[in-house]
Structures are given as C-alpha cells and as structure tokens.
Amino acid sequence: MVIVPATTGQMGVLPGHVATIAELKPGVLSVHEGNETTKYFVSSGFVFIHANSFADIIAVEAVPLDQIDANLVQKGLVEFTQKLSSATTDLEKAEAQIGIDVHSALNSALTG
Amino acid sequence: MAMAALRREGRRFAPLISPRPITAVRSSPIAPSHEDECPIGVRYISTQVVRNRMKSVKNIQKITKAMKMVAASKLRAVQTKAENSRGLWQPFTALLGDLPSVDVKKSVVVTISSDKGLCGGINSTSVKISKGIHKLNSGPEKETQYVILGEKAKAQLIRDSKKDIELIITELQKNPLNYTQVSVLADEILKNVEFDALRIVFNKFHSVVSFVPTVSTVLSPEIVEREAESGGKLGDLDNYEVEGGETKGEILQNLAEFQFSCVMFNAVLENACSEQGARMSAMDSSSRNAGDMLDRLTLTYNRTRQASITTELIEIISGASALEG
φ, ψ for residue A86 (rounded to 5)? Predict the structure, then answer.
C-alpha cells in the first residue's frame, strides 16, 4: 500500500483502486511493503493509478526522510516568510508562498 | 609517382586538419630543391617535406586519440544519468501514449543537437528528420515551427528555414545537465511558443556504436481532450478519475507541461550520450587513418632517403672514375 500526498489530502492506494490521475502537493510519501515502511519527501508531481492495479508516481524531487537537514528547513522557512512579507509583485508573492508551503511540509514531515 | 600519391593524400587529409591549422604542410613536388642543408655544389633530394608531413600526422594521431579518451570518460559520466532518466517519461507514455501520427494544425519541432563538432553524422540526421517532419506537416492550415537547441542544428537550419525558427538556445552543456536547467528551458518554450503538438527530435542512445534518431510527441491539453473524446488510443483517458483541481482541464494542463519537461530532460541527456559516443567512434577512425597515413609516409620517406643516397654515391663514383680514366 502507498500513501501519497495529493492536493486533496493524503490518499491511500491499494490494489484495485479506481483508475485516477492525481496531482501531488509537497508532503510525505510512504510505501508500506508487508511490515516495512519507507518514507520519502516528495516536492510535487503526479500519481497515475491504472486500472490494472499499477501505480506510477512521478515526482520532481523525492528525498528519503533521513537525508533532510532540520536546521536548513528552519532557515528556509524563515527566509521565505521574510520574502513573502517583503514581496511586491504577484509573482514574488506566489514564489515566496510556494517556498513556505514546501518548507512547512518539510517541517511537519520531520516532526510528524 | 610518389609525389602524385602524396598530393592525393594531401587533399584527402585537408578536412582533418581544419580544427587545428598546421601550416607546415605543403604538397610541393619533391624535386631537387635548393632550399636547405646543402653545401654548395652537392645536389640531393630533400626529405624535409615528407618529414614535416610525418610530424604533423603523428600530432594529429595523438590529438584524436586523446579526444577519444576524453569523450569516453564524458560518456561514462552522462550514461548513468541518461539511463536513470528513462523511467521519467515512461509513465506518461503508459498513460497518454505517443502518437506521432496525430493530426494537428500547429506543430513545433524541437531539434536537439550538439554545440561542438567532430561528432560524426548525428547532427545531420537530426536536421534531416526535422526537415522531413516539416514537410510532412505542411499543407493548407497546417504549419510547423522550429525550436533549436545547439549550434550545429542552428547552422544548418538557419540557411533555408530562417523564417520558421521560433527560438534558438545554445551553450546548453556549459554546466552539467540537470533537471532544474531543463525545466527552465521547457518553461521558456512553453511560454513563448503556442503549439498543438510538440515533436522532440533527438538521438536515442542504444549503445556506444548505435544511436537512433527518435521523435517524441507531446500533445497540448486541448488535443489530448479531443483525442480522448474521439476514442482510439487515448479513449481510456476518460476512465480515469481526476482528483483535485477545479477542472479536469487544469490538471491536464499541468500534466502536459510536466510531461514536456520530463521528455525534454531525457532527450537532452540521451543526445549528450549519443554525441559523446559518436565523437568516440569518429576520433577512433581518425586516429586509425592517421596511423595508416603515417605508415605510407614512412615508406615514401625511406624510398626518398635511399634514392638520395644512391644519387650521391653515383655522382661521387662517376666523378672519381672520370678523374681516373
């Protein structure tokens, strides 16, 4: 079973799932194989669930959770919050918001 | 006869010389020359020209051998990346299929080529295929535009298709290729070019000696919808529930853009691999040719040397016998 962080929330995928195309938001992807779980942080991407119980997960970046540095996450979060408050154009605001989303997701991935 | 052979070789030799101009080579006939090293009164045939030729051929052999090894090491580095990137576009093809035969009004051909030369014929084949696609897609209401990556394709396409070129991007390989760079590139293309179908032309790397020119087709979301409704290969797309987003169209838009950047990433890496592989084999055959040429020149050199010694001996001996008798 796989739990993917779709834009509509965490989605669990088991064999026999209805065929779906879902967009992913930054979050934790956990792969449960038997009793083992491997967790990755996914920055964004897509998941295709085919009708023959095959799922393809395509991510822009995927990192195993133990390779993430908590200090850098905090620093990034602070940096992007600053950028958001000092942003003038819509584009800058959007970019800063994206940075905040990713970093807070990273934060909750590390703690949660 | 030796001179004629050398002059023939000289002409064949010229294209190899061009990257590194070696001006010492002149195919002047080896006649008794007064140029060098002869004390006055002694005539002998000069081996200087052949010697110069041999030196430059030997240099070329060393240079091309070194280039081959450099290309081999670069190939090793890019090859793992390229093979890993193949998994990136396969899910898209599993979902959306690859329909080169789709009928669209506006298609854009993205030609990927190298910046540097001396890599065999891969750039010419890519350009040939791009022109072929252009021809296939021309007709009433249909038009094709080019987006060019790389200097070599730019040089070839700018000559006859200047008005059809939308965007030219060069110096891609200055920094090692990574996804971020390619996604910025894909972004640029998507922003500036409107298209119904994107056809990416590149050389797929099968092995060190085989590179196959390939075309990958990425459709715009509207065409995907149209094809899905009309059935056929994309007909199953409607069976998929689309989660999230306000409309299916929005998701498909993101999907198409993501697909384009993934396919581009793979295409650029594969083309880089093919370029290094082609350069390896081109440099290998060039150093082998240089070796052959060196053998032939050595024979000529020895013949000339022996002929000059014989001439000198004859002159001395006939001079001595003239004095006696």
Answer: -100, 10
Question: φ, ψ for residue B7 (rounded to 5)?
Answer: -65, -35
Contact B94 A48 (CB under 8 A): yes
Q: Count H helices, E strands: chain B?
A: 7, 6
> Would you give the DSSP letter of residue B247?
-
What ipTM describes this predicted complex? 0.82
DSSP string, A5-34: EETTEEEEE-TTPPPEEEEE-SEEEEEEET
Identify the three-state secondary structure at position B69.
helix
Among A8, A21, A48, most B C-beta atoms within 10 A, so best to mutate, is A21
Tens of pLDDT, residue by residue over B180-216, are 888 888 888 888 888 888 889 999 999 888 989 998 8
For residue B280, give the 3-state DSSP assignment.
Answer: helix
What is the C-alpha to C-alpha distance for residues A27 and A65, in angstroms, rounded to an integer? 11
What is the greatest pairwise CA distance in chain B? 117
Burial of B275 by CB count in 10 Å (0-12 exposed, 13-18 middle, 19+ buried)?
buried
Instruction: Using DSSP bridges, classify how beta strands B143-149 and A55-59 pair: parallel, antiparallel or unpaired.
Output: unpaired
Q: How many CB atoms are closer than 10 A to CB A84?
A: 16
Contact state of B243 with A7 under an 8 Å Cβ cutoff = yes
Contact B94 A56 (CB under 8 A): yes
Please answer whether residues A35 and B270 qualify as being in contact, where contact means their C-beta atoms are separated by less than 8 angstroms. no
Please list the residues that pair with B168 across neighbouring strands.
B148
Tokens linked to A96: 């800063």
A19 contact residues in B (CB cutoff 8 A): 236, 239-241
- Pick from B140, B141, B144, B102: nearest CA to B230: B102
Q: pLDDT of A36-91, one tens digit each?
A: 888 888 888 888 888 888 888 888 888 888 888 888 888 888 888 888 888 888 88
Judge whether B209 and B281 are in contact, CB under 8 Å: yes
Helix (H, G, I), strand (E, B) or coil at B166: strand
**Residue A45 Cα, gap to closest chain B Cα (Å):** 8
Best probe of the A interface among B241, B246, B248, B266, by most A CBs < 10 A, is B241
What whole-number distance in Å separates Cα of residue A21 and Cα of residue B96?
11
DSSP B115: S
